[in-house]
Amino acid sequence: MVSVANDETFTPPADSVLWNKDFLIGAATAAYQIEGAIHEDGRLPSIWDIFSATPGKTLAGDTGEFACDHYHRWPEDVELLASLNVGAYRLSISWPRVMTIDGQPNEQGIAFYRKLLTALRAKGLKTYVTLYHWDLPQHLEDKGGWVNRDTAYRFAEYADMISRKLAGLVDAWATLNEPWCSAMHGYGTGHHAPGKKDVVFATQAMHHLLLGHGLAVRHLRANDPQAQVGIVANVGRGTSTDSSAAGQRAAWLFELQHNNWILDPLLKKSYPSALWELWPGAEPTILAGDMDIIGTPLDFLGINYYFRTNVVSDGKHGYTEVDLEGVERTQMGWEVYPEGLRHLLVGFHRDYPNLPPIYITENGMATDDAVVDGEVNDQQRISFLNRHLAAVDAAVKAGVDVRGYFIWSLMDNFEWAFGYERRFGIIHVDYATQKRTLKRSAKLVTEFLAQRAAQ
Ligand code: FCB
């Protein structure tokens, strides 16, 4: 166990990009993780309702049925958010809330997001809206979900409809959140909804997710020309303690599989061919013109970064993960490794000449937080934020165009397969009472942003 000092402050060095008022600092959430109200106002079932209600799929059997009750408590949450002095809020829209089974707009669901976005704008907050943060309508999964090419076209219809309805209220649209997790955990490992387990499904799902993204970009641009349009990818740092060629290849393959699998099609219009050595026979069906659609230029790329993975060769074509000992870890068991963020950003800047401006759309950590005498002293998170923001600053100084940073998350919420036990928020949520309590991290970020605004 690595200990963290008990007196962490949040004061970036004077030459840090964080002091630049144009460098956006925000907080992020996602619909299914906070909204609850899964049966209200015509919302349809999503794959996460079904998956999380299936015994054995989530820790303690937790589901998103109530979550943070944000669907009802959003005015309080907007007030809290605004009180933090942040410049932006990243949220997602629940597809099954805003579209009926026959593809028509569900006006009641849409009204919720219109009220929310209007309130955020009224507080001077920039709105970063993700269209798909994993909550596929179950009726589309019943027809094959993302393994079925038709889902890409249904996603484009949804993007078209919702961007007409909410045009003018959104600063930046992101089509997908972390297509890697949707494809791999949803259809490959089965850790996430819909819980399928076949790498052939995963690669085909990835292709259809990216196709849906490319088709959606065109609608977003046409319907809301003032807004920025992009996508959010999770990226991972892979290293190996084995310095042999086999060990180094394992680390390279890890990053290829996690990062280049998504970034190459988006920025080079092709999948890395080594993927099909890693997964023989798993090459997806690609139709003529698909890669041009997928490679439609982006206004920004959202990067979600959490940890490093240590790997060794599996002695065949792939790699095996081996946990390092004696390193600092989070409540998720993830290694705290800020250097990985700098390293990856600098690498993307070097490898993709057409890399769009970057926002860190998620970074943060889970801690086992409790309210003691009205306070939550989340020292490890403060230290984590300090170190990762320093890594972002180092990347900016190395020439990478990073424009902002969103803390994951605004508040504790439903952490997917890990339910409510894992607490990622800078605001603590007592799920029994739905009381929100600012953690010390939230208070320090607020103070810093007030100082920044005053200079
Ligand atoms: C990311 C997800 C986000 C949250 C964090 C911890 O993969 O996008 O919803 O669960 O991990």
UniProtKB/TrEMBL annotation:
What GO cellular component term, any one, is given? cytosol
Molecular-function GO terms, alphabetical: beta-glucosidase activity
InterPro entries given for it?
Answer: GH, Glyco_hydro_1, Glyco_hydro_1_AS, Glyco_hydro_1_beta-glucosidase
- In short, the EC number is 3.2.1.21
Catalytic center at which residues?
E178, E362
Q: Which UniProt keywords apply?
A: Carbohydrate metabolism, Cellulose degradation, Glycosidase, Hydrolase, Polysaccharide degradation
Pfam families registered for this protein in UniProt: Glyco_hydro_1 (PF00232)
Q: Where do the annotations place substrate binding?
A: Q33, H133, N177, Y306, W408, E415, W416
- The positions making up the signal sequence are none
What reaction does this catalyse? Hydrolysis of terminal, non-reducing beta-D-glucosyl residues with release of beta-D-glucose
Q: What does the record list as GO biological process? A: cellulose catabolic process
Question: What does the similarity note say?
Answer: Belongs to the glycosyl hydrolase 1 family.
PANTHER family with a match to the protein in the record: GLYCOSYL HYDROLASE, LP05116P
Q: What is this protein called?
A: Beta-glucosidase
Q: Which organism is it from?
A: Duganella alba
